[in-house]
Specification:
The protein is mainly α and 450 residues long. It folds into 4 domains: 162 residues, Toll/interleukin-1 receptor homology (TIR) domain (Rossmann fold); 81 residues, no CATH class; 123 residues, Tetratricopeptide repeat domain (Serine Threonine Protein Phosphatase 5, Tetratricopeptide repeat), CATH 1.25.40; 64 residues, Tetratricopeptide repeat domain (Serine Threonine Protein Phosphatase 5, Tetratricopeptide repeat), CATH 1.25.40. It is built from 20 helices and 5 strands. The chain has a 5-stranded parallel beta sheet, sandwiched between helices. Strand 1, helix 1 and strand 2 form a beta-alpha-beta unit. The longest helix has 26 residues. The chain is flat and about 75 Å long. The two termini are 30 Å apart.
Length: 450
């Protein structure tokens, strides 16, 4: 997206602001956050006001801290409201000269409450605060508060809504876990004898590692090892440290799959009731299988795929044990998808289609989207001789829910072409190109414009 986003928050709410920031960055949102994107050599006030002037969307994390002692948060909102008024006035003046002028009333303000609505939103420090925040209180707000795990999906639901407003796709963060996850696990693992000092050492180590990751420090691996030693010395049975390190290894530009495999395997033995270890091991074995497949070692690739399938099916079976509902559904989606991919690679198309359909049900229920899953299902349906009409009906149902996914329109174009509905194919390919102007989509479109 080309629209610029400004994130306004109190530094006392940095934890949730950081999580929101990285989820939006991962969703390709050009968002500006002072503690990350600010220029250390620039004039603080001048830079802030300039970024507010340039933004198209202003995300405000409203809380008692935001409306507290500091006047700076109020200054940010006030500047945004002034810009909004100026642009609306300019629009009215322009429309007198050109009635067709459809200039937007930017910047749009998105208010997110970090705490339940209450008296704190009507108690003002001074008259200036009252004038500013009374205007904000008239706007609709989104809930962004939760305690512990996001059991009722408040955070995910709000992030999905924000991304829809911004015109991008949001996918739940289910790769590298969060600070809150670690905090919860320490408390749960040390219920009988909870030592706050030890807990703080572990939590500080985690924060230190991810600060280094954000700043691209070269010694992240060494920091992980020191942190995991601290966790081991604490003598608290924690799943989180090894898992976080293994996930980090997998997500590097040059993944260390073998080392990650060893850590995931260790987790399956230490925590045999937790599906995440089995899922991680299954995913790594699948990745190793793909690497072997690409170099032509089909026998070893097949062996990796079979082992991957074994561990992913074990993860699936564990998901039916008592387990956090939100984590269960997210993990189930990944497991079902990956088993489908594995079966596809092994040539078992019928069974792969069964798992893909299960994954699609979870995908639609949780409002997730996985391009590879849709693409593989489309390929299997074609290969098994499904009617193009049935495939079109299925894709059109997905388009109603995922209106911004270019892949769906591209596949619709191919399906319409198969039944010689060329005008519909052209419309679908045109929409795919508008959403994603890639060379492939342009090629598909040009074939129907000649």
């Amino acid at each position: 997206m080309s629209n610029k986003v400004f994130l306004s928050y109190s530094w006392k709410d940095t934890q949730i602001a950081a999580r929101l920031y990285y989820d939006l960055v991962r969703s390709n949102v050009p968002i500006w956050r002072d503690q990350i994107d600010g220029d250390p050599t620039a004039d603080f006030q001048e830079e802030f006001l300039q970024k507010i002037d340039e933004c198209d969307f202003f995300i405000m994390l409203d809380s008692p801290n935001y409306r507290g002692r500091s006047n700076w948060c109020c200054t940010e909102v006030q500047r945004c409201l002034e810009n909004q008024k100026q642009r609306r006035d300019a629009k009215k003046n322009n429309q007198k000269d050109d009635p067709k002028d459809d200039q937007k009333d930017d910047p749009q303000i998105i208010v997110c409450l970090l705490q339940e609505d209450g008296p704190w939103r009507t108690q003002y420090k001074n008259e200036e605060h009252k004038l500013v925040f009374e205007q904000i209180n008239k706007l609709k707000y989104l809930k962004l508060y939760y305690e512990g795990y996001d059991d009722d999906h408040t955070y995910d639901s709000t992030l999905n809504t924000i991304c829809k407003i911004l015109g991008v796709r949001y996918e739940s963060w289910n790769r590298i876990p969060t600070y809150q996850d670690l905090k919860d696990e320490i408390k749960n693992a040390a219920k009988i004898k909870y030592n706050e000092q030890i807990a703080n050492i572990i939590l500080d180590g985690f924060r230190n590692i991810f600060t280094k990751i954000e700043m691209h420090y070269p010694n992240v691996r060494e920091s992980f090892q020191v942190w995991m030693d601290d966790c081991k010395n604490a003598k608290i049975p924690l799943f989180f440290p090894r898992w976080t390190y293994a996930v980090w290894l997998v997500n590097q530009d040059e993944p260390n799959l073998e080392e990650a495999r060893q850590y995931f395997l260790e987790l399956t033995k230490l925590f045999p009731e937790d599906p995440r270890g089995f899922r991680g091991y299954g995913n790594v074995m699948m990745a190793l299988g793909k690497d072997l497949f690409e170099i032509g070692d089909l026998e070893e690739a097949s062996s990796c795929y079979h082992e991957s399938l074994q561990y992913l099916q074990k993860a699936e079976s564990l998901l039916y044990e008592p387990y956090n509902q939100h984590q269960k559904e997210i993990c189930l989606f990944g497991v079902l998808t990956n088993i489908g991919v594995t079966l596809w690679c092994l040539g078992n198309r019928s069974e792969a289609l069964c798992y893909n359909r299960k994954a699609l049900e979870v995908m639609e229920t949780k409002n997730l989207f996985r391009e590879e899953l849709v693409y593989d299902t489309f390929s299997i349906m074609k290969e098994k001789g499904c009617s193009p009409i049935d495939i079109i009906r299925w894709l059109k149902q997905l388009v109603l829910k995922y209106t911004l996914e270019p892949t769906l329109y591209k596949l619709l174009g191919f399906s319409y072409d198969a039944i010689r509905a060329y005008n519909d194919a052209h419309t679908a390919f045109k929409k795919a190109y508008e959403l994603c102007p890639s060379e492939e989509n342009l090629h598909n479109l040009n074939n129907f414009e000649k």
